[in-house]
Amino acid sequence: MMNFSKTYIRFNWLALVFIYLVVIAGSFVRITGSGMGCPDWPKCFGQWVPPTSPSELPENYKDVYSERRAVKIEKFASLLNKLGLEETSEKLMNDPNLRIEQDFNNRKTWIEYINRLFGFLAGNAMLLSFIWLIWKYRKRKLILLTGFNLILMGFQAWFGSIVVASNLVPWTITIHMLLALVIIALQIYFIREISPSQQKPLTQSKWVLYLIWFCFGVTFYQMFLGTQVREAIDELTVAGVGRENWTSELGMIFYIHRSFSWLVLVFLTIVAWKNEQLNKYLSIRFVFIFLILELISGVLLAHYDIPGLVQTSHLIFATIIFGILTMVVYRSKVFKVIQN
Hints:
- This protein is mainly alpha-helical.
- It folds into two domains: 1-199, no CATH class; 200-340, no CATH class.
- 74% of the residues lie in helices and 2% in strands.
- It has eleven helices and two strands, in the order ααααααβαααααβ.
- It has helices at residues 6-32, 61-82, 86-93, 106-137, 140-165, 170-194, 206-238, 246-250, 252-278, 282-303, 308-331, and strands at residues 203-205, 336-338.
- Strands 1-2 form a two-stranded parallel sheet.
- Helix 1 (6-32) packs antiparallel against helix 4 (106-137), helix 1 runs antiparallel to helix 11 and helix 6 packs across helix 11 (308-331).
- The two termini are 33 Å apart.
């Protein structure tokens, strides 16, 4: 087995932190409606450091960026047409709101700029890790893995701009979220492959292992459902439906999402109880704690008119749970099974 330096392993943990920061910042961009805070890319209003007032922009900046956005939408609509999504393509092309450029908003501009900054740090950390791997370690399997994840990261950045430019077409939001989870899972797998501490066998009962796998699968599905619920709420808000009627209007998808959350709580409580009896693994403790926080934030979202920051917290907790369970599932391949 190839020995990787502690510096390289720690650097890849740092890259994972940057990826999480991108997810957090992206969620904050969405709840504040800051996606078009910077209408161009990679610069922001043509500058590497964004402006702080409209006086720093040309008078016709709205016309300029509206035209650029229209070109981007037309290209995306053409792609959708080729993929057989003619109805969505037609809606994009005929939506006049997509051609209206927002007034300059300093707060939204800097929120989007910070989101891009985190994306820049995450992307370059992954690129540096990839170059480092080729230069020093030359392990083909890992080079392919990191190269593929690097491509996904670049695609995710481009697709994020499409999500915003197309005014949050519902299914694009779901794909954007699922891609983020795939990137996180691949980075965690890479860390497992290079880190000896992540390859140590875990001692656990076989039936507890099955519960962990079940919770992992349900958590992934829950994040998919959560995105669907969020998209439906956005549509209800646009339609003028009040919060008090959201539950009845959302229908079965909301009840499945809520019920599965409590189901995961029951099973993870059993796993946590067995963990305290035998192993006291920190990963199991942390996933249980974050699940409690996740459920609390979910209750607040469902029943109270709370600030958007709780929406971000809800996503953060879910993503952390997914990450920890991913680590445990990867390590389950080397579980030392005990009979009890």
